[in-house]
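can u do me a favor
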């Protein structure tokens, strides 16, 4: 198994975009937020992709973005809440690096994520509970699981302890040259 990519997996609000940069900094690796990569590619926010093109279009964009991560060596990537649910993505992630599930209860998700319309799948407490319950068994297919209610620095330390990852000074943390 490759150990030069870490994929942070979990439900919305679990802290992937907070923990990811901290973990990347500790490792000396670049950080990629998959949702931000998709938004940059689309030229607008995810909730607009859902509204204008639907969830299937977004999921295709997400799968393309997951596959494009293979161009990066030594990186930490925060995946959107649904990215690990897709079997092809999960297979690609398993072949490409280590997956870490940041597990946060639905109750804490609702505390962290206001229903302000920026998260298309966050409708009401019952829908959050239902979606979380349906995704939990798939999230648990990750290589590692960490309690995401811990402080971010503690989550990072736990991930480093569990995975045995260490900074690699002989490797570059620069993105690959894609001819841009």
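np, heres the sequence
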């Amino acid at each position: 198994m490759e150990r030069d990519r870490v994929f942070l997996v979990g439900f919305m609000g679990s802290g992937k975009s907070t923990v990811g940069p901290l973990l990347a900094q500790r490792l000396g690796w670049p950080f990629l937020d998959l949702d931000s990569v998709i938004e940059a590619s689309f030229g607008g926010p995810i909730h607009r992709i859902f509204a204008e093109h639907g969830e299937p279009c977004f999921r295709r964009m997400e799968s393309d973005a997951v596959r494009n991560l293979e161009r990066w060596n030594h990186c930490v990537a925060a995946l959107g809440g649904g990215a690990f649910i897709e079997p092809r993505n999960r297979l690609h992630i398993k072949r490409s690096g280590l997956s870490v599930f940041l597990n946060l209860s639905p109750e804490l998700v609702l505390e962290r994520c206001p229903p302000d319309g920026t998260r298309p799948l966050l409708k009401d407490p019952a829908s959050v509970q239902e979606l979380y319950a349906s995704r939990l068994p798939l999230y648990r297919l990750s290589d590692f699981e960490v309690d995401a209610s811990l402080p971010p620095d503690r989550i990072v330390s736990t991930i480093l302890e569990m995975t045995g990852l260490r900074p690699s000074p002989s490797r570059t943390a620069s993105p690959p040259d894609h001819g841009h």
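The first helix runs from residue 16 to 27. hope that helps!!
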